[in-house]
Amino acid sequence: MKIFFVCLFNFIAFSTFSQNLRQASVTVDAGQQAGLISPLQYGQFIEHLGRAVTGGIYDEHSALSDQEGFRTDVIEKVKELRTPLLRYPGGTFTKIYHWEDGVGPKSDRKKRKNLIWGGIEDNHFGTAEFISYCRKIGAEPFLVVNMATGTPEEAANWVEYCNGTGDTYYANLRRSHGFKEPFNVKYWGIGNEEYAETDAGRDQEVQQYIKDTWLFVKLMKLQDPGLKLVLVGNQDDTEWSRQVLEKLNPVCDFLAIHLYSIPADTSYNTLIKSIDQFEKPLLDMEALLSKFPAKVTNFNSWYRFPARTAPIQLAVDEWGIWDIHSNRGKGLFQMEYQYNWSHALGVATFLNLFQRHSSSVGMATWAQTVNVLAPIMADSTGSYRQTIFAPLKAFRDFSGKYTLKATTISPDMATGIKALDVSSSITDQGKQIVFTIVNRDAAHAINTAIKVDHLPNAFKKGTIRQITWSAGNLNAVNTYGHENAVSMKESRRKISPDHMNALLAPASFTVLILEQP
Fold this sequence. Notes:
This protein is of the alpha/beta class. It has two domains: about 20-35 and about 405-515, Golgi alpha-mannosidase II (Immunoglobulin-like, Sandwich), CATH 2.60.40.1180; about 40-400, Glycosidases (TIM Barrel). It contains eleven helices and 25 strands. One of its GO terms (biological process) is polysaccharide catabolic process.
């Protein structure tokens, strides 16, 4: 009966998808030198934008909030994502944000007009609240400083407030606010999209950015030499990025790029193409990073702080799907989107892309977390997980620690678009080989041959665990009280080393795990 069930599962089709069977193959070499997948690839981002913070993760006046003002229903869903890194306070909002407005007694905090996104910011969610939220969800905090209307001294003071241990003004100020121990914030961004002409800022010229960044770096590193710094790169302007690295590579731990899928129309194929095209900027950035040494030598000791100690990596510290042209967004700047199943397949494709480029992608933070371009939606009555929540959670739950290069032979789903998108990984102890496979073809199931060269003998008596996520159609969505658009089905079977196949349903993503006994 069990064998019958597994076979039946493998041939079940969704009623709204046809099941014309096609063939593909995926090959990996288990004996290859595997590369580390940074756990920071699975980060999130929050910004004072619309209902992302206030009315999203934080609501002092809600019966659903705890004593700190955190929405308990929301935080439980955020915890499910096992977020390793949380970026704050922006985003473009950083250009007007002064951190001292958001510390100390809430009754004393200054209200400010949000010149970037509109509305009034009461600053009741500030540094301490952000740190507390990070601790509750188990995430490392990642703070971005204000280069546009702030100063290097202001940024350095923020470092002292967060990390200072001595008998100094800002460390003592933190203590006076009730936080004896330092927050130990390791990751700091120096500005955000400073090249953007339409934003408030003074560093749109790359040489000016370089000049100002040096000042920020010096004062911040003198406060805490152990900081890991994220500098502004530009995925659309390699020359900007090259000049930044030419001058600042000794102190650049991560170079930030932003990858938003903004489809030109509402078709599914256009969505997938808009994500596939990011292969090129990642390759371009990798070629650029390769020109700079992994280890810095001859760094002048008179800087009084050390140079970076590892190769420069990319920080994709904003990524996601921003479906501007659909006119389906609601809320402020139409950024509250109801994501459907096609978007979930796009997110799975994004995550595969990052895994394949793990040699360069050291961190990535989905923009954003709640309500605004978000996997979680919340209103005064409750919250729910959007369809895109499923792949975000699945990759964090099942991906291995090290990436394995996969060779995929796939039919096209449309001109210039491969049906299958694949990445592969292996766990820390080598006892599981994991394939994350997206069948983006909405019309065809694909019988996929899985080939593993140099498969260790221990696997040959093991099992294949197949977990597949799917939906009734590409437009399927979750809503408040109805989180039933996405289905998950799981099967197990014995490994047959000479004949391993996975039948992939149309418009699905699958985690295939080869497990030792």
